[in-house]
Each structure stands twice: as structure tokens, then as C-alpha cells.
Design a protein that fits this description.
Helices cover 41% and strands 14% of the residues. It has an 11-stranded mixed beta sheet with strand order 3-2-1-4-11-10-5-6-9-7-8, sandwiched between helices. Helix 1 (18-27) links the parallel strand 1 (6-9) and strand 2. The model has no long low-confidence stretch (mean pLDDT 92). The radius of gyration is 20 Å and the shape is globular. The chain contains 10 helices and 11 strands. It is α/β, with parallel strands linked by helices and 339 residues long.
């Protein structure tokens, strides 16, 4: 069971521990969507608190529990916290994955701490220069994966090429896109656009074992033109946070304008719009490139997002996505102009 078990950070996130535990219970609900065996989930955190809260929420269906005495807060410096809190739930979660007590790790906690702990504790897959965060949205009703969303702010061209390969594997193996179209986010569609890094990345992606569609611009995210968008972590994080807030802003503005013209619309009638840019619909983001399956959820995740994240971790494990990433990078190495 251990290699297929998913370690869940119960203490991470704005709504921990109750939302995290409710999510674990929802994932295992026989009448729910995912119907995961409780034994497949390893809860990591303060054991006494976990047991008390599970009792208050209706009982423990059979989870495994790993005690962690410390918690890394959402606002803490990742590097400082990881050094000063070796018994944190994030560190113990990654440690359990490294030791083989779990095959995947899920946290809604401090993103930087999760990335740091996973990169150092698990190491990278063979051939991977640096890991990246892959986020999936449904802007057009179809899955759109953006990578990187904040793990690597200033990547080299080779890392951007690897993001394209890893994102393509993810899109194919987990999201079911037969031949993912990969685009490089830039300020124009022409080959010679952008910084020296982007120009070099364009050439590498053109020769990579992916269906490269060239440069794409910001507006291309809103049409069915691309399946995987490659970008640096700085730009990607700005894009993601802008999208997250824009839907709520537009809904509020639209309702206000309609109301001013005497049209009454219940907010719930438009609430579904926001789901198109909410990556918690997929459970969270995957840290692609580390030697393990690591899912990073939004700090504000509710129980539905947590349940979805656990299911996403299970699917990634079962699909053996990391082995396919390694194979893709090997093909890139053998087909590169310098090979």
C-alpha cells in the first residue's frame, strides 16, 4: 500500500485542519465522487489534534497518521522555516514520500516551503534541470496547462524547453489530450520576438519531441489554440493571480451594472463562470520534475479542492507520469541539434 499511498499535510492552508480533514473524508466517501480507500491516505500533522477533529467530524474511517509537531505558516520564509522546523508537517510529508511510506504528497500550505522541501528532499528526475509548477485551468471548457507558475522565476532556455516536455506529458497522460499543442508565452507570435532567453527557448522547443505551435500571446489563453503554455515562473505567477481575481471582479461589475439597469440576477446563477479559472477544480498544481508526485493546492482550498487534489495525486501515481517525463527528456536529448 505504501507506494500508492498519498501523504496529506493536514496542517497546511488557511482553513486547516478541518477543511483538509473534510476533504480527506470526502475523497473516501463511498457515496462520493472519488471513493478512495481510506488506507490510501496518510494524514500528516499533530496526531492528537487530528484524532480529536476526526472524532468531531464523524469518526476515522481508517486513515494512517504520521505525527508532526511543527507547522510552517503561510507567511513564513520557506528557507528559514525548513531549517528551523525539521518536524513540520511539510517536512514530514516529503520525508514519508522519500522513505517510501507514500508515493505522493499533497499540501495546501506554504508553496515555497513545499517546493523547497520537495526539491531538496526528493531530488529531481534524471535529466531535469529544475522543477516547475504546472497549473491546469478550463478557460475555454478544455484543459489548459500553464507552466511554470512560480517555482523558477528566471529559467534558462533549457528549462523552458523541459517545461514544454513535462507539461505535454502531463496534458496527455492525466488530462487526456491526445497530442497536446505547446506554445511559448511571448509578446508576439513571430519567431524573433522576445528576450534572448525566449528566442533560444523557441529554437529548443522547435526541435523537442512535442507538438510545438510557436509563440503565443496572452489573448491566446482564451481561445482553443493551445493546450500547454510555457513561461517563466515570474510571468506565470502574475498571470495566474490576475486570472484568479479577474473573474470575481467581472462578476461583481456585471451584477452591479445589471442591477443599475433594473435587471435582477442571483449571484449563484453566474458562480459557475469562476470555475473556469479555478485550478482547485483539478485539486491543485503539480510540481513536475521532482522524483515523486507532489501536489500543491491553493491556501484557501475547501474540502472539495482537497478531495480533488488527493484524486489528482492518485491519478498521477497510477499513470506513472514521472517515468513518461524521463522518457520524453531522453528523446529530447537524442533529437537535439547538439546530440
Amino acid at each position: 500500500m505504501a507506494p500508492t499511498r498519498i501523504a496529506l499535510d493536514v496542517m497546511g492552508g488557511d482553513n486547516a485542519p478541518d477543511a483538509i480533514l473534510r476533504g480527506a473524508l470526502a475523497a473516501c466517501d463511498p457515496a462520493g465522487r472519488w471513493k478512495m480507500p481510506p488506507a490510501r491516505i496518510l494524514l500528516v500533522g499533530d496526531e492528537a489534534l487530528i484524532r480529536a477533529r476526526l472524532a468531531a467530524l464523524g469518526g476515522d474511517p481508517g486513515f494512517a497518521i504520521l505525527h508532526a509537531s511543527q507547522v510552517i505558516g503561510m507567511g513564513e520564509s520557506p528557507a528559514t522555516a525548513l531549517r528551523g522546523k525539521p518536524d513540520s508537517s511539510i517536512a514530514k510529508m516529503i520525508g514519508a514520500t522519500k522513505a517510501g511510506a507514500a508515493g505522493a504528497a499533497v499540501s495546501m500550505g506554504n508553496t515555497g516551503a513545499v517546493v523547497g522541501a520537495a526539491t531538496i528532499g526528493l531530488g529531481t528526475l534524471p535529466g531535469v534541470l529544475r522543477p516547475g509548477i504546472a497549473v491546469t485551468l478550463k478557460l475555454t471548457g478544455k484543459p489548459l496547462t500553464l507552466m511554470d507558475m512560480g517555482a523558477l522565476l528566471e529559467p534558462k532556455p533549457e528549462s523552458l524547453m523541459q517545461f514544454g516536455i513535462m507539461g505535454s506529458v502531463w496534458s496527455r497522460d492525466i488530462l487526456g489530450v491526445a497530442e497536446p499543442r505547446v506554445g511559448l508565452l511571448n509578446v508576439g507570435e513571430e519567431e524573433g520576438k522576445g528576450t534572448d532567453t525566449l528566442k533560444a527557448a523557441w529554437k529548443l522547443l522547435k526541435n523537442a519531441p512535442v507538438r510545438f505551435s510557436g509563440n503565443v500571446e496572452g489573448h491566446d489563453l482564451f481561445v482553443d489554440k493551445i493546450d500547454v503554455v510555457v513561461t517563466d515562473g515570474f510571468t506565470g505567477n502574475v498571470v495566474l493571480k490576475l486570472l484568479e481575481e479577474f473573474a470575481g471582479f467581472m462578476l461583481k461589475l456585471t451584477l452591479g451594472e445589471l442591477g443599475a439597469h433594473g435587471v435582477k440576477v442571483q449571484p449563484a446563477a453566474l458562480a459557475g463562470i469562476k470555475k473556469h479559472i479555478d485550478y482547485s477544480e483539478y485539486g491543485g498544481a503539480l510540481l513536475l520534475g521532482v522524483n515523486g508526485i507532489v501536489i500543491i493546492g491553493h491556501g484557501r482550498s475547501d474540502e472539495t479542492a482537497v478531495a480533488n487534489a488527493l484524486a489528482l495525486g492518485a491519478r498521477a501515481l497510477d499513470a506513472d507520469v514521472n517515468a513518461h517525463i524521463v522518457a520524453g527528456l531522453e528523446r529530447a536529448k537524442s533529437t537535439s541539434p547538439a546530440a
